[in-house]
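TICKET: design request
STATUS: open
ATTACHED STRUCTURE:
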């Protein structure tokens, strides 16, 4: 209400045209309905153009694995941007104040953050402006009292269920009383200073991006050799910038912790094939010369593409598999054995256990990485597909296709482990002997038993 009143007063001088968007989060029932009606009545009285948008925060939080707070923030800003574009608004004004900055700094520090977190809330970010960020809450309340402007109070602000509320309701009163009455002010001042340092850092990051980062299709790459020579703080900040870039509008990048950024940076010194899963479906893969960053596609997520491939210190890899023995590789145990088949036996519907007709296997079995002429039968009519085409169709990242583990007989592939098995060796009523291949997670190092 303070923000709206201030913008009203400045509208003539600054030639502002105001549009009010009220977001109903669907969380507080009648109280939220009353808030909505209050805004509507105020705007009608003042003849300010307005719009009400209802969003289902609880549903979106559940479907996307977000917290309620996070879901509310993401949905709000989505609607802000959508309506701003629809109504040709050049700026989106939100009412964060000084205490919000201090609260954000502490919240980010507690959950683990880098420089961005200590910078708190930015006064200007693209088309979003925060005119009240220089004001303390007491100043805002004093302004409203002087102008005789009433306002609604959100009861959820007093619920200690939310982390930010605990900081505001418990931590700040304690440190101001017991340690320093100006503690909140000092924290906000620190954020101001850090934003100045961050501006200098951003200039350096732009230089680094232009010299060691490149894009191809939907992937972003860093050259490992030059990246490894950077100071750790530059490594983390460059990775953070990449993750923000591959996340649409930055959504989800605020969930990245300093520990996760450090782990991602350490991949540059790890063996080829090491993969890291980060929040918001972001992936980082160590390839021969680079770190490869991408956001997992919805198709790959729906198919639950497994991460079963060789950590290829011995690449290319080939091993003749004696039936009845185990092979341990990349944290998995592959157990191969033969048994008699009876028609009463039920074939398991499990992508990590596969049955094959043993008598159709004409040569020695191998566990290996792919070769140029490898094929797999994908239909009972004999239709084949190259392994390269299969991996492309299954959205397996290009950089790990060479390291996928295959159960093979010559150039005929029985099974791309965890992904697809051949129709050629399908068990029928005429099958006499079974070859059973079972893959299970064991967490042990590569070895033979």
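STATUS: resolved
RESOLUTION: sequence designed for all positions
ATTACHED SEQUENCE:
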């Amino acid at each position: 209400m303070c923000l709206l009143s201030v913008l009203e007063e400045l509208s003539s001088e600054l030639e502002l045209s105001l549009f009010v968007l009220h977001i109903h989060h669907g969380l507080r029932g009648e109280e939220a309905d009353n808030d909505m009606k209050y805004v509507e009545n105020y705007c009608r009285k003042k003849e300010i153009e307005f719009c009400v948008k209802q969003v289902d925060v609880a549903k979106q939080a559940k479907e996307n694995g977000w917290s309620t707070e996070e879901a509310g923030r993401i949905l709000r800003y989505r609607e802000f941007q959508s309506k701003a574009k629809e109504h040709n608004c050049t700026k989106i004004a939100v009412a964060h104040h000084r205490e919000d900055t201090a609260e954000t700094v502490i919240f980010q520090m507690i959950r683990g953050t880098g420089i961005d977190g200590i910078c708190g809330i930015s006064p200007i970010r693209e088309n979003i402006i925060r005119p009240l960020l220089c004001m303390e809450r007491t100043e805002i309340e004093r302004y409203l009292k002087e102008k005789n402007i009433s306002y609604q109070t959100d009861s959820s602000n007093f619920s200690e269920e939310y982390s930010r509320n605990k900081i505001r309701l418990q931590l700040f009163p304690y440190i101001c009383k017991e340690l320093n009455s100006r503690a909140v002010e000092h924290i906000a001042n620190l954020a101001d200073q850090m934003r100045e340092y961050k501006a200098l850092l951003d200039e350096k990051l732009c230089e680094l991006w232009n010299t060691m980062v490149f894009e191809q299709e939907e992937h972003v790459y860093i050259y490992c050799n030059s990246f490894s020579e950077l100071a750790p703080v530059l490594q983390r900040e460059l990775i953070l910038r990449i993750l923000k870039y591959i996340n649409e509008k930055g959504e989800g990048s605020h969930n990245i912790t300093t520990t996760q950024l450090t782990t991602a940076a350490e991949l540059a010194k790890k063996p080829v094939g090491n993969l890291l899963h980060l929040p918001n479906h972001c992936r980082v893969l160590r390839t021969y010369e680079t770190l490869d960053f991408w956001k997992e596609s919805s198709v790959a997520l729906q198919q639950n593409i497994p991460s079963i491939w060789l950590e290829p210190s011995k690449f290319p890899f080939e091993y003749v598999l004696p039936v009845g023995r185990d092979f341990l590789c990349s944290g998995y145990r592959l157990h191969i054995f033969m048994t008699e088949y009876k028609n009463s036996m039920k074939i398991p519907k499990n992508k990590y256990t596969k049955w094959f007709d043993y008598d159709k296997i004409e040569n020695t079995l191998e566990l290996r990485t792919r070769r140029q002429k490898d094929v797999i039968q994908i239909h009972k009519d004999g239709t084949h597909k190259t392994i390269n085409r299969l991996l492309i169709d299954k959205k397996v990242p290009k950089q790990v296709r060479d390291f996928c583990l295959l159960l093979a007989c010559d150039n005929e592939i029985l099974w791309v482990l965890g992904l697809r098995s051949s129709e050629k060796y399908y068990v029928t009523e005429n099958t006499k002997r079974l070859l059973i291949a079972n893959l299970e997670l064991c967490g042990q190092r590569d070895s033979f038993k």
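CLOSING REMARK: Confidence is low (pLDDT under 50) at residues 298-315, 443-449. The longest strand covers residues 332-340.
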